[in-house]
């Protein structure tokens, strides 16, 4: 499914702000990046609000102040993977990150991983697995994150950001360790699922021996929108949720709630963000036997239009006091959480059955924020009394520090983290 | 991803043949169906070659001589579910099949399951789960099949078709019982995965207490094409496989290899077909470390273009003797199997990880044929020596009798099977 919002370019992103130049290390560097990054980067480099997305099917810029895949208009499909590190060799790991960056630069541009993918040496393994040959770039974005456990390795302990806290245990959590955590993660979003699956698979291939896939999640359909003109996609409960999401064009809100500022520290995270991933299983069978009135009371919206209680339209300002005290919209609203605001980017999943005749389906929740302690944690604490909890359960959880964007052809994922560390140069 | 082939209407389908009229029970009935079936049926009813698919995003006819979802141009996404029967009450089960049929008729037309889905009684559960509200019909097709085990119930033993054999054990099979078999199945194909997931979920909801989901499979991308003008989509090994598939427009080949003829028996299967479903796990990590030459030798095609060994283009006639004796294309070719030919309709899947750091990914193989004993079984037996077997493993298996299409608004899935049974009317 391709919706109109996918093709909305962010015209606000063309004017770099002072802050974006700081994020890039200065104007000279920013301009250099545009020159060095090739055609793709030239076309869409230099924004503060992040490259918002290219024309239909086209590439999203890889070189930018912030990583793409956050403020970028939400693509239709997701493949997300968390990795465990298998090497103790810091140089080997850094080399893998460089190789990953080079591969990501090519894949997001719609190219095969290697230059001569199928004109190369027949006796060598192909340098691309091939299943995306002939497919469009499909607005592929690849977004890397570093988990708390990574900082227990490679002499990185004192580089761990304060804001990268281990998530507390929340009421109702029923977490599966095999679907939680990870030393690092890559979020692949694209309008064509084959393009997203191909990207994760090729990174796993390149990382062979250095990392292994800890868990992965396919998201078949987006449940959030970062383009306010579009309707919010429905989740598997049939409701529009997260209507008041931060838009990719809302530079001020992104700066306030999503991007790590220089003053936040550490330096290597300036222009980055923090990602919380939660696998939320929905008990859809009991939900489906719940009356329409109760469903609407639980959400605080009507099901057909998605309007808040007592209002006519989805985007009408909600009147929280008209809702039940434990209505989902009411409890999740910034006014109930001291203003806590996150950028949501979740996807619906269905992973077969649970062995008990029920579909294993739900929401793979992804939220970006400037500080997890002021974003997801207070919101989720407040949702402890959410009426929705009778019908959902959090079964997987992870948190990652998402570094800023790759600046130019010489930059690589994690360079600032690894270069500035006391144990290496 | 939407490809040009999706929008190809089958202009050959507008002229009913004698055989299709027999399948429909006579011309009067056929015309009656067109009148009774509403706008959708009127638009595309009466073909022998099956409704080939509507215009972009539009509905595919539900009322037809054959079930849609077989010769229909392959949609982008799949949700497939196998069900176990939980009731011993034959009338209750037949009522459920009628309810399923009514729901399928509406959903394939792009409508909610119930008339007044969200204008109904607030104190009742909604008669549609809602997540497909506002989405296009997306060429949704719903195709039902009856497994061998169903015929052990409801006094149907003597109605079991001879051709519905239990599959033999094949060399290399490593079947998971929890992902095999099933009393019945529904294949949902659509260009929007949310539409396919919604359809299966609502059938499961309607069937609550009567059936439960035994296993289900999401297919994120098609690997076959039934429209010869389009390129064959690549599988997760990066190859085009099944290039010489039966096209939805090849009426003669469909009649010869796919549709059950009146002379084949039993009567209730005339115009139906047999479906073999196999979950084929790919060991993609070792595959990715195999040289390009070896990969191409194993398939008998080049990877870039997909041309058979020694040929220039994908659709050039393969010269089998130029290939290694155990090349996949050579062993799967009709010339190596006494002419055995099947219609392939498989999808790629990726279902997270296997707990060993590897992606659980592969091909969900779906093949339709007039007789399993002359289709899948000889082909799969011949593939015992397939060089590809080092890199794949069959881990799930099922076979189903797929009855003919629903004729009109009064007809329902399985009517001929249940009505003609000795223990009822």
Write up what this structure looks like.
Chain A has one domain. In chain A, helix 2 packs across helix 3 and helix 4 (90-108) runs antiparallel to helix 5 (193-206). Chain A has eleven helices and ten strands. With 425 residues, chain A is an alpha+beta fold. In chain A, strands 5, 6, 7, 8, 9 and 10 form a six-stranded antiparallel beta sheet that branches. Chain A has a four-stranded antiparallel beta sheet with strand order 2-3-1-4, with helices on one face. Helices cover 22% and strands 17% of the residues of chain A. In chain A, strand 8 and strand 9 (359-369) form a beta hairpin. The first copy, chain A, has helices at residues 18-24, 27-36, 38-44, 90-108, 193-206, 251-257, 284-288, 292-299, 328-332, 376-382, 415-419, and strands spanning 77-85, 141-146, 184-190, 211-219, 221-222, 273-282, 343-344, 347-353, 359-369, 392-402. Chains A, B: Keywords: Heme, Iron, Lyase, Membrane, Metal-binding, Oxidoreductase, Peroxidase, Signal, Transmembrane, Transmembrane helix. Chains A, B: Its EC number is 1.11.1.-. Chains A, B: GO terms for molecular function: ferrochelatase activity; heme binding; metal ion binding; peroxidase activity. Chains A, B: Involved in the recovery of exogenous heme iron. Extracts iron from heme while preserving the protoporphyrin ring intact. Chains A, B: Its cofactor is heme b.
């Amino acid at each position: 499914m391709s919706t109109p919002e996918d093709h909305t370019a962010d015209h606000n992103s063309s004017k770099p702000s002072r802050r974006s130049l700081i994020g890039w290390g200065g104007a000279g560097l920013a301009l250099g990046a545009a020159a060095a990054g090739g055609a793709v980067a030239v076309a869409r480099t230099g924004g503060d609000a992040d490259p918002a997305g290219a024309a239909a099917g086209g590439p999203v810029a890889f070189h930018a102040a912030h990583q793409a895949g956050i403020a970028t208009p939400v693509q239709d499909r997701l493949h997300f993977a968390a990795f465990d590190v298998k090497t103790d060799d810091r140089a080997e790991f850094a080399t893998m990150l460089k190789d990953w960056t080079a591969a990501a630069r090519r894949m997001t541009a719609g190219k095969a991983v290697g230059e001569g993918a199928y004109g190369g040496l027949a006796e060598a393994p192909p340098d691309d697995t091939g299943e995306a040959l002939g497919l469009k770039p499909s607005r592929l974005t690849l977004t890397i994150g570093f988990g708390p456990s990574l900082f227990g390795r490679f002499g990185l302990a004192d580089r761990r950001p304060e804001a990268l806290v281990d998530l507390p245990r929340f009421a109702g959590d029923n977490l599966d360790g095999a679907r939680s955590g990870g030393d690092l993660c890559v979020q692949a979003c694209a309008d064509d699922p084959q393009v997203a699956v191909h990207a994760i698979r090729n990174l796993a291939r390149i990382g062979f021996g250095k990392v292994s896939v800890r868990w992965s999640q396919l998201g078949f359909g987006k449940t959030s929108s970062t383009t306010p003109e579009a309707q919010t996609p429905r989740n598997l409960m049939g409701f529009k949720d997260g209507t008041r999401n931060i838009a990719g064009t809302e530079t001020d809100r992104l700066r306030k709630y999503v991007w790590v500022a220089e003053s936040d520290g550490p330096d290597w995270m300036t222009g980055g963000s923090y990602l919380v991933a939660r696998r939320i299983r929905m008990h859809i069978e009991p939900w489906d036997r719940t009356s329409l009135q109760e469903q609407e009371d639980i959400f605080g919206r009507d099901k057909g239009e998605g309007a808040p209680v007592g209002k006519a339209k989805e985007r009408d300002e909600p009147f929280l006091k008209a809702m039940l005290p434990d209505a989902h919209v009411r409890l999740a609203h910034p006014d109930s959480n001291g203003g806590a605001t996150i950028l949501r980017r979740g996807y619906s999943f269905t992973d077969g059955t649970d062995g008990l005749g029920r579909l294993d389906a739900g929401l793979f929740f992804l939220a970006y924020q400037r500080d997890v302690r002021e974003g997801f944690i207070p919101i989720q604490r407040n949702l402890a009394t959410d009426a929705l909890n009778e019908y959902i359960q959090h079964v997987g959880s992870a948190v990652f520090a998402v570094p800023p964007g790759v600046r130019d052809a010489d930059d690589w994922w994690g360079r600032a983290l690894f270069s500035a560390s006391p144990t290496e140069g």
